[in-house]
Amino acid sequence: MSDVQNPYEQFAHRIRNANLLDDISLVLNWDQQVTMPEEGSNARSLHFSALSSTRHELLTGERTVELLEAIDETNLSTDERITLREARREIERKRSIPESLVEEISETQTRAFDDWKAARETESFDRFADPLCDLVKLQRERTDYIDASQSTYSVLLEDAEPCIDPETIDGLLTALRDGVLDLLNEYGDELSESAPAPLDVSGPFKAEKQQELCERALTMLGYNWKRGRLDTAPHPFDGLSQFDARITTRFDEEEPFSALLSTIHEFGHAAYNLGLPDKHYGTALGRARSHSVHESQSRFFENHVGRSRGFWERFMPTVREIFPEFESVSVDTVLAHLNSVDRSNQIRVKADEVTYHLHIVLRHEVEQQLLSGDITVEEVPEVWNDRAERYFGTSPESVVDGALQDVHWSTSFGMFPNYSLGSMLAAQVATAIEREIDDVNTLVREERLDEVHDWLTENIHQRGQRDTTDELIECATGRPLSAEPLLDHLESNIRTQLAR
Question: What is the pLDDT of residue 298?
Answer without folding.
Answer: 96
